[in-house]
Write a structure and sequence with these properties.
The chain has about 625 residues and is an alpha+beta fold. About 40% of the residues lie in helices and about 15% in strands. A hairpin with a 2-residue loop joins strand 7 and strand 8. The N and C termini lie far apart (about 50 Å).
């Protein structure tokens, strides 16, 4: 494969309307693979530090994985990247579906937007041609309706659309970028960046095929994967909702805004039984492009106050957000909450958490019906939860106070409410307790995108001795999870591997359930002599440049701290009553990454080894210590 086979990269200035397409040199892909790697490489070079995340100078990118659009199984993913308005850090969000494949089929590997359009627009990509079109008629529309209108307007039901809903238009810092039917690039508030640029949507249609250098090898690898497909039978049947009951009972899922943990604190947890949910609500199976696992589905609630005709199957994070976090065991209200979030384009993790925060404020008399527009925001009140959700997604009344997350809501409310604001530098963490698997807490506070639960899955897997890939570099010894010097390097390896598979476009869950020969797939598609050490080095290069992005912004390791509530000793789980020293764990991780433990800056030696010295500049660790 040549660089041209990887597709064109579009650079669009929305202020002027200019469109430029570029074929990047092969070295960009060799060093940064694709997806988040290519995204951070482009943004670091082309963006000045300290830009306004909602201003002209922030660059918003849509970047496919290196293997996206190829026959490699479970590689539908693409990444949305920008400086996050929610956290002020590097921002990215990952999603699947069909849009990434269609972008590659149309001849593009990435699209980057700068500037701000004077009016609402959408980008139409049609088999190698690009055109900005008026989107005034789409502004204010929900995400599903936007996709339907564009398919009808363009005369092709095969058009794939990624867009924002009203939450992104109103610049909610929790806004998602949505594609297909309910696939969300949910984290980092990047829907608000899209809204700030008045970019309503990207519609794409392509008929090309992404070539593979060694089709025979690729076919053999794919055949082997299909022969072992039964390994994924539970993922296929349940998706991630299988985790719900287990995570509640083990003390992993937060209850009442992380104030409680465990089965006794949420006695009706059995309502979340995955078999009962599938049997009662699922009407069909769905999948992402080219993925034989088929883990997604469609739910329907036929009647009642929470009736929903068709909505994507509710997954674990959404059940946890609007369920135990809000002390709510009304299943159908949670399914409807997920549907509202999809339609309006807003992150379920952060939105459920900010409602739980408001419920705790209400319980403690910090706010009352006067502030909440008459809504009785008590724990477990499903109708009140949905009423407040409706205000948040429309940025109406008290919803406007909550629409930018718990950090800003607590600043607006004041009166000591800050102690109930569960966030890491503005972003609400996923629903896996930092103390049950300390690697989660480490990544919540050490990854350049704070509070990210997915970024912690593979680092945690290293300490559970999970066989995540068939390579000696990814076989791990048994360690004491509280031996911080031992686990830091394992978490670093898991973090680097996570960045590598993200850059390839692999689905995290496909790689987490069974050992995936990821490096072999890269070799088969590209023709490179590519090994797992190459993949881990690329992942470390990506992770290090993401870190350098943050340190260049003037951010310090101490700016990323877990909330006190989820860093003090837990009352449940395997480390109940024990204090986890997340500072020592962070230092061990930083040393393994060769980042300065005081400033966060990558060392000169690390930059030189990773070929980043010219791009990043000299080591500045001594200049930014606090």
């Amino acid at each position: 494969m040549s660089a041209s086979d990887r597709g064109k990269v579009l650079f669009i200035d929305l202020t002027s309307g200019s469109i430029e397409d570029v074929i990047l040199e092969e070295r960009f892909y060799c060093d940064f693979i694709g997806g988040v790697g290519l995204g951070v490489r482009i943004l670091y070079e082309r963006m000045k530090p300290n830009v306004d995340p909602l201003g002209h100078d922030n660059i918003l990118g849509f970047v496919t994985g290196l293997l996206t659009g190829t026959p490699v199984p479970a590689t539908p993913r693409y990444m949305v990247v920008a400086k996050s308005p929610l956290t002020g850090t590097w921002g990215d969000a990952n999603t699947g579906g069909y849009f990434g494949h269609e972008l590659r089929a149309a001849g593009y590997s990435a699209v980057f937007f700068s500037g701000i359009s004077p009016k609402p627009v959408y980008l139409w990509l049609n088999d190698g041609s690009a055109e900005l079109r008026d989107a005034a008629h789409l502004w204010g529309k929900e995400t599903y309706e936007t996709g339907e209108i564009l398919c009808q307007e363009l005369g092709d039901q095969g058009v794939r659309v990624t867009c924002i809903g009203p939450a992104g238009e109103s610049l909610s810092l929790l806004a998602s970028v949505m594609n297909d039917v309910g696939d969300a690039a949910g984290r980092s508030g990047l829907g608000a960046v899209m809204g700030s640029k008045r970019l309503k949507a990207i519609a794409v249609r392509g008929k090309g095929k992404v070539p593979a250098a060694d089709r025979q090898c690729l076919n053999a690898l794919r055949k082997s994967f299909l022969e072992g497909i039964d390994t994924y039978s539970r993922l296929k049947k349940y998706g991630t909702l299988e985790e719900t009951v287990e995570d509640i009972t083990l003390g992993i899922a937060g209850i009442k805004n992380w104030g409680l943990l465990g089965a006794e604190a949420f006695p009706n947890y059995a309502k979340f039984d995955c078999d009962e949910l599938i049997n009662k609500y699922e009407i069909e199976k769905r999948t992402c492009w080219g993925c034989p696992i088929v883990c997604k589905g469609t739910f329907r609630i036929e009647k009642g106050p929470y009736a929903v005709d068709k909505t994507p199957k509710t997954e674990y994070e959404t059940f946890a957000a609007f369920g135990p976090m809000c002390f709510n065991d009304d299943i159908e209200s949670i399914i409807q909450a997920g549907d509202i979030c999809n339609r309006y384009g807003i992150d379920t993790i952060s939105t459920g958490t900010v409602i739980a925060f408001a419920m705790e404020c209400y319980e403690n008399g910090i706010i009352g019906k006067k502030e909440t527009d008459g809504i009785e925001l008590t724990w477990g009140n499903a109708s009140a939860m949905l009423a407040m959700l409706g205000k948040i997604v429309r940025r109406e009344g008290f919803g406007a106070v909550l629409a930018d997350g718990t950090k800003r809501a607590s600043e607006r409310i004041g009166r000591g409410s800050e102690k109930w604001a569960m966030h890491v530098r503005g972003q609400e963490p996923g629903f896996q307790d930092a103390r049950f698997w300390p690697g989660r807490g480490l990544i919540y506070s050490c990854d350049p995108t704070p509070g990210r639960h997915t970024a912690g899955i593979l680092p945690v897997a290293t300490t559970r001795r999970r066989n995540i890939a068939p390579y000696p570099e990814l076989q791990f010894p048994k360690v004491d999870l509280l031996d911080y010097q031992a686990v830091g390097p394992l978490h670093a390896t898991g973090s680097n591997y996570y960045q590598f598979i993200n850059a390839c476009g692999f689905c995290l869950f496909a790689c987490g359930y069974a050992p995936m020969p990821t490096a072999d797939y890269v070799s088969a598609v590209t023709g490179w002599d590519f090994t797992m050490p190459d993949g881990l080095k690329a992942g470390r290069r990506i992770q290090t440049l993401r870190q350098a992005f943050n340190t260049r912004e003037g951010l310090h390791p101490d700016d990323f701290r877990l909330p006190e509530r989820i860093s003090k000793p837990s009352m449940a789980g395997q480390f109940a009553g024990k204090q986890i020293d997340f500072g020592a764990l962070r230092d061990s991780f930083y040393k393994a990454m060769d980042w300065d433990t005081e400033s966060g800056w990558p060392s000169e030696a690390a930059l030189r080894e990773l070929g980043l010295t010219e791009l990043v500049g000299p080591d500045r660790s001594k200049a930014v210590k606090k």
